Every structure is written in C-alpha cells, then in structure tokens.
C-alpha cells in the first residue's frame, strides 16, 4: 500500500511540473492520436473529464465531439452512494459547480444521468499505467467501484475504458490489487497501448 502511495506522489509531482506549453502540445497530440480510431468514431455517448492536477487535457476532444454531434458526459460524485460516479451530459451551456475536491462538475440533474454501463466509451484520467493496461488513479477507488461490474464478465460487457495520460506516467509494472479494473487501452501524447 505504501509503495502505491509513494509512486502516486512521485508521478503526480512529475505531471504537475509540465509547462503550459508542454500541456498544450500534449493535448494537441492526444487529439491527433484519438480522432481517427474506430472505437472513437463509432462511439456516440462518451464520458470524459476536465483536467486537474496536471492531467492530460481532453478539452480539444470534447470540442470535436460537440462538433460531430456526439454526446459528452462528465463524472459527478454520486450524491448518496459513497465513492461512486454518475455521468451527466456536458454541453457548452452546462452550469458547473465545485465538488468537495474543488473540481468543477456539472450541476446534477438526476433524470439526465446516464448509467455507467450504457456509455459507449469512457476516456478516463489516471496517475500511472503500465503496458498491460493496469491503472493507478488518485486513490479514491471511484472508477474502480463504478466499473466493478466489468470484472464479473471479464470486460465482455459495458463501455471500453481508455486511459488518457502523458507518456511520462508510464511505469514498468504496477502493483495491482484485486479491486483494480484494467483498462481496454491507453492513449498518450506519443503512443497507444493495447
Ligand atoms: N469495487 C470495490 N468495492 C469496494 N471497495 C473498493 C472497490 N474498488 C476499490 N475499492 C477501495 O477503494 C480504495 C482506493 O482504491 P485504489 O487505490 O485502487 O484507487 P484508484 O484506482 O487509485 O482510484 P480511482 O478509481 O478513483 O482512480 C481501496 O482502499 C479499495 O479498498
Ligand atoms: Mg484502483
């Protein structure tokens, strides 16, 4: 557990030290690496996130989705169930509010939410990844809990989970726990994995 904590801190510091220019360049390259993929082009309902703590910025992708008429969703903290995410529509008109972590999220309109399993594609942030698709997040277990249903049928059900990251967030092999949900693929500013 301590090993996980140390690694998390190290990579978060590395990620935060990228300059605005490096972040912009990474965001542009990420867009180029995703836009022609078959899974992205096919997907109609796509969950993404707003960048925080040096995460690679998917906002150019969000803009592209709006232009293409795809539906974009952002995660919001579940109002009652501890450590679970809901996904709600995000458009240029969406009203935003800060959650308990100080991160902007759409104001929750419960009937608009989309269940996790009915999304086509989830582009999710991460702290560290390895080439086998293992993922380490910020340590809340939010994505792991929300997509735990995928473990039951070994990824045969529900959306593809694609981790987005800076190439510098790659590690040799991640220490993984039995609740960690693996990624379908990982896309960085320079490469795609799996
Ligand atoms: N399906 C689950 N059911 C119950 N507890 C869980 C589940 N998944 C994760 N947890 C708990 O959540 C805590 C954090 O998990 P972990 O360290 O893997 O977070 P993470 O993957 O970095 O976070 P996130 O998914 O939010 O990005 C762990 O202590 C674990 O016990
Ligand atoms: Mg985890």
UniProtKB/TrEMBL annotation:
GO terms for molecular function: 5-formyltetrahydrofolate cyclo-ligase activity. It catalyses: (6S)-5-formyl-5,6,7,8-tetrahydrofolate + ATP = (6R)-5,10-methenyltetrahydrofolate + ADP + phosphate. InterPro entries: FTHF_cligase, FTHF_cligase-like_sf, NagB/RpiA_transferase-like. Its EC number is 6.3.3.2. Keywords: ATP-binding, Ligase, Magnesium, Metal-binding, Nucleotide-binding. Its cofactor is Mg(2+). It is an enzyme of class 6 (ligase). This is 5-formyltetrahydrofolate cyclo-ligase. It comes from Neptuniibacter pectenicola.
């Amino acid at each position: 557990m301590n090993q996980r904590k140390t690694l998390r801190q190290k990579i978060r510091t590395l990620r935060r030290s990228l300059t605005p220019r490096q972040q912009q360049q990474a965001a542009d390259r990420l867009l180029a690496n995703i836009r022609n993929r078959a899974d992205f082009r096919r997907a109609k309902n796509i969950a993404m996130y707003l960048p925080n703590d040096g995460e690679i910025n998917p906002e150019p992708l969000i803009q592209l989705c709006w232009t293409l008429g795809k539906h974009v969703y952002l995660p919001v903290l579940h109002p009652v169930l501890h450590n679970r995410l809901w996904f709600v529509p995000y458009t240029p008109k969406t009203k935003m509010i800060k959650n308990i972590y100080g991160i902007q999220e759409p104001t929750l309109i419960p009937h608009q939410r989309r269940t996790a399993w009915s999304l086509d594609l989830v582009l999710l942030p991460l702290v560290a990844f390895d080439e086998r698709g293992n993922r380490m997040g910020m340590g809340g277990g939010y994505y792991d809990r929300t997509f735990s249903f995928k473990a039951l049928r070994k990824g045969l059900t529900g959306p593809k989970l694609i981790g987005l990251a800076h190439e510098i967030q790659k590690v040799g092999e991640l220490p993984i726990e039995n609740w960690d949900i693996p990624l379908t693929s990982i896309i960085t500013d320079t490469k795609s994995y799996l």
